[in-house]
Design a protein that fits this description.
The complex is a heterodimer of chains A (76) and B (501).
Chain A: H1 2-12, H2 32-46, H3 57-60, H4 63-75
Helix pairs in contact in A: 1-2, 1-4
Chain B: H1 5-16, E1 20-23, E2 28-30, H2 31-48, E3 54-58, H3 64-74, E4 78-81, H4 88-98, E5 102-105, H5 110-114, E6 121-124, H6 125-128, H7 135-143, E7 150-156, E8 164-169, H8 170-184, E9 191-194, H9 204-213, E10 216-219, H10 228-237, E11 242-246, H11 247-255, E12 269-273, H12 279-288, E13 293-298, E14 308-311, E15 326-327, E16 332-336, E17 349-354, E18 361-362, H13 366-372, E19 373-375, E20 385-395, E21 401-406, E22 410-413, E23 416-419, H14 420-427, E24 435-441, E25 446-452, H15 457-467, E26 476-479, H16 493-497
Helix pairs in contact in B: 1-9, 2-3, 8-9, 11-12
Classes of the chains: A mainly alpha (76), B alpha/beta (501).
Chain lengths: 76, 501
């Protein structure tokens, strides 16, 4: 699943080092338009529904955090 | 009659002295404090810079930036704002057009400024905010301004690959601010929530409503637009009553479901502009905030970012297409056919605008200015310039204007105006790109680049990220062996559009 996520992230922003960044939102590396695009792609790819309450920096600051969120939402 | 925006600032200080004018997450400035800043910056600049010169301002998303703008004006100059987050190549292009001798920066942008192709003097704002103001010098500089003096130069995408600097006068700005204030009933009880980058044309309301109407402006941190619940919490904490946002900004919280969590409690007015509003998102706003005044604004930067407005009285549906309405006060709209004839009611023509809101032209580019700002072909009796917007429209029986798209390849993407030709010009500079064509999938908001050659999509995106503003980076790249062509040899864009998914 991590591979699929990385693929989506790299297609979205090939200039960002998703393997190592841990402050994607806090440091403003991903902007609001990236987030809108990303939420749509993640919902489709993993058959989940990311809710506004999930849209906090902690859930999107790193690829690892995003993966944890996806797994959590898939369990629901 | 007012000679410059300084008349407004002077009266606002007298009337609202200790009221907050601008606020952000870290600081706030009363009208008096703000004014003192502009006087210090203005005096310092006036000792160095001749009146009537451009001053480049590269300063961040905080409330000292408007003080830099007005400080330059206090020195009898005009400002050219630059977003320091833009790639160096882009900043150098802007500097190449404006050819300024002075740049005012905040400390955070000093390093970037020093790395640019700029041989003039760089002044750090933090170093001069306590500089002793001189009434005499400031008085002279204020007197040098007339209402047709340039106030600012704002840069926008140019199809030749070089950004165009649109010059706006004091008179144009004040005319627009007064007209839009009347429609939105902006007054001293209003608190604006700023979304637009401060260097961008859409921020002029957030910057000038305080000094013109006694309102306050809160500069919302950029990060909050990625966290919709934090955004609405801020609107409530700051008791924000009025928003003048890009359509893209208004869509965001609706798209991300922010209304499921909370609602902006104090909001009374929402004006949106920059592109066509998809009504499925406006519907969500209306359902949650039925008593808010919704205003759809239309207009190009060349007419002070505006032209017409439409107050949305009806409840919209997903497929409602909003009219662009009627001209603001002091705006005259004429529709022309391709051969410069008047257009009958119901027929489509090019939207042309005239009045005191017309820009002074494109900075340092007389040829381009003369092409876009022309004598009204329907008037052979006296001088009357009109601006040809390149937009198509029609008036209905009630005199309401409707928008029918572009005549050329200009698009609106994420609230910004982009010439697809400029995307192609840039892509051709990437090694390994032989030919290309850029198209826009509007429903999905995807900027496409179709190209031939050996370059990988990563090469191209990295080049764009390095050289172009983020909103101009193609989202979808398609490598083809050959671009499809029509019998006349031109690129077949309809066939390319079949790649949209």
């Amino acid at each position: 699943m991590m591979d699929e996520l990385m693929e989506i992230l790299e297609e979205l922003r090939p200039d960002v080092d998703f393997a190592n960044e841990t402050a994607l939102i806090t440091d403003g590396i991903l902007d609001s338009f990236d987030i809108v695009a990303l939420v749509g792609e993640l919902n489709d790819a993993f058959d989940i529904e990311i809710k506004p309450n999930n849209l906090v920096p902690d859930n999107f600051n790193s690829a690892k955090a995003m993966l944890a969120l996806i797994e959590e939402l898939q369990d629901e | 009659m007012e000679t410059s925006v300084l008349c407004r600032l002077n009266s606002a200080v007298e009337k609202y002295g200790d009221k907050v004018a601008y606020k952000d997450n870290e600081n706030s400035l009363t009208f008096r404090q703000f004014n003192e800043l502009t006087r210090s910056i203005g005096t310092y600049l006036a000792r160095l810079v001749p009146a009537g010169s451009p001053v480049v301002v590269m300063s961040g998303r905080h409330i000292f930036t408007p003080a830099c703008f007005l400080g330059a004006v206090r020195a009898g100059c005009f400002y050219a704002p630059m977003d320091g987050d833009m790639p160096v190549t882009r900043l150098n292009q802007i500097l190449g057009v404006i050819k300024a001798d002075f740049m005012l920066v905040d400390k955070a942008h000093l390093d970037i400024a020093q790395g640019l192709d700029f041989r003039g003097t760089i002044i750090v704002m933090e170093d001069i905010i306590d500089y002793p103001a001189s009434d005499e010098l400031l008085g002279q500089r204020e007197k040098s301004l007339v209402c047709t003096s340039p106030l600012y130069v704002i840069f926008t995408s140019g199809s030749t690959g070089v950004p165009k600097g649109v010059i706006t006068s004091h008179q144009s700005l004040m005319t627009y601010i007064d007209s839009v204030s009347k429609v939105l009933d902006i007054n001293d009880t209003d608190v604006l929530g700023n979304q637009s980058p401060l260097d961008y044309i859409a921020a002029i309301r957030d910057i000038y409503f305080p000094i013109s109407r006694g309102a306050s402006t809160f500069v919302i941190p950029k990060n909050e637009f990625a966290v919709p619940t934090a955004l609405f919490e801020t609107l409530n904490r700051e008791k924000i009553t009025a928003l003048c946002w890009s359509v893209a900004g208004v869509e965001l919280p609706a798209k991300l479901g922010a209304f499921d969590v909370l609602k902006p409690e104090y909001l009374k007015k929402l004006c949106f502009s920059g592109s066509v509003m998809p009504c499925k998102y406006l519907k969500i706003w209306q359902e949650n905030l039925p008593d808010v005044l919704y205003v759809n604004q239309y207009g190009p930067t060349e007419a002070t970012a505006s032209c017409t407005y439409y107050v949305v009285k009806e409840k919209v549906d997903d497929d409602t297409v909003l009219p662009i309405g009627t001209p603001y006060d002091n705006y005259k709209v004429t529709l022309l056919t391709e051969d410069n004839k008047p257009v009958a009611t119901g027929e489509t023509g090019e939207i042309c605008v005239s009045g005191p809101i017309l820009a002074l032209g494109y900075y340092g580019n007389a040829a381009y200015t003369e092409k876009a700002f022309i004598q009204n072909p329907l008037n052979s009796n006296y001088r009357e310039l009109i601006y040809r917007t390149g937009d198509l429209g029609s008036f209905d029986e009630d005199g309401i204007l409707h928008f029918h798209g572009r005549m050329d390849r200009q698009i609106k993407h994420l609230g910004h105006r982009i010439e697809l030709g400029e995307i192609e010009e840039s892509a051709r500079k990437v090694e390994g790109v032989t030919d290309c064509c850029s198209l826009y999938n509007k429903p999905k908001e995807h900027l496409y680049l179709f190209y031939t050659g050996d370059a990988t999509s990563k090469d191209i995106v990295l080049y764009f990220r390095k050289n172009m503003p983020a909103f101009m980076v193609p989202r979808k790249l398609v490598n083809l062996d050959k671009l499809p062509t029509l019998p006349n040899g031109k690129i077949d864009m309809q066939t390319l559009k079949t790649y949209f998914k």
